[in-house]
From TrEMBL:
Cited PANTHER family: 2-DEOXYGLUCOSE-6-PHOSPHATE PHOSPHATASE 2, PSEUDOURIDINE-5'-PHOSPHATASE
Keyword Hydrolase in record: yes
Name of the protein described by the UniProt record: HAD hydrolase, family IA
InterPro entries: HAD-like_sf (IPR036412), HAD-SF_hydro_IA (IPR006439), HAD_2 (IPR041492), HAD_sf (IPR023214), PGP-like_dom2 (IPR023198)
Entry keyword set: Hydrolase
Gene Ontology molecular function terms on file: hydrolase activity
Pfam hit, one: HAD_2
Entry keyword annotation includes Hydrolase: yes
Length: 217
């Protein structure tokens, strides 16, 4: 393993739970009940398809554009304030990879400026040599474009690259690009179909580190 690629929201940081609570509040205000089962299906989706998925599920939502603007405003403030907890073991695993001289990259649907701000505010930016962001691709996850761009930047054979993702959309994007993927079971519950696609599923990065320790014994 020479390259490790990380998704951001829900993988390195436990942000999806916070975003879900905002959407629940906004939708309830308009008389809609937003359930976790549906929201898990849209986690990792690019902004361009979020409205479409919401309206396919709920029907026409007259105030959706206003709700989305309010969501983005609150999301940006949360990112600025760095309110999200890191996934357990995140920093320890990144430190381990740094000690092993393994290159790390960030591959996220978030736009570059907001993703870099989060990493900087949480003291994680220095661990990453490169990134591919949602505003640098035409098609978002589950399309494989974002990971194909990451492969180009990595300049390593596919078998030397491992991906960590939390959402079905992200996992599908990585697997369709020919990459091995580990599922971080943070906010999104794994389905049997997704479980068959990944190398393994871990609760957090302490479990990832435990697996490395066991394999080296």
């Amino acid at each position: 393993m020479k390259i490790v690629l990380f998704d951001l929201d829900g993988t390195l940081i436990d942000s999806e739970r916070y975003y879900f609570s905002i959407w629940q509040e906004l939708m309830a205000r308009e008389g809609y009940q937003l359930g976790k089962d549906f929201y898990q299906q849209v986690v990792g989706s690019p902004t361009s398809v979020l409205k479409e998925k919401f309206q396919q599920h709920f029907g026409e939502i007259p105030m959706f554009d206003d709700l989305y603007k309010e969501f983005m405003c609150r999301r940006k403030q949360a990112q600025k304030d760095a309110v999200f907890p890191m996934t357990k073991g995140c920093r320890e695993y990144l430190e381990y990879l740094s000690e092993q001289a393994i290159t790390c990259g960030i591959v996220t649907s978030s736009y570059q400026k907001e993703a870099e701000n989060i990493l900087e505010n949480m003291g994680l930016a220095s661990y990453f040599a490169f990134g591919v962001y949602g505003d640098q691709v035409n098609m978002g996850k589950p399309d494989s474009e974002i990971y194909l761009k990451a492969i180009e930047l990595a300049k390593q054979p596919l078998e030397q690259i491992i991906v960590y993702e939390d959402s079905p959309n992200g996992i599908l994007a990585a697997v369709h690009a020919g990459l091995s993927c580990v599922h971080i079971k943070n906010f999104v519950d794994p389905t049997p179909e997704i479980e068959q696609l990944v190398e393994s599923s871990c609760i957090d990065f302490f479990e990832v580190l435990d697996g490395l320790t066991l394999s080296s014994d």
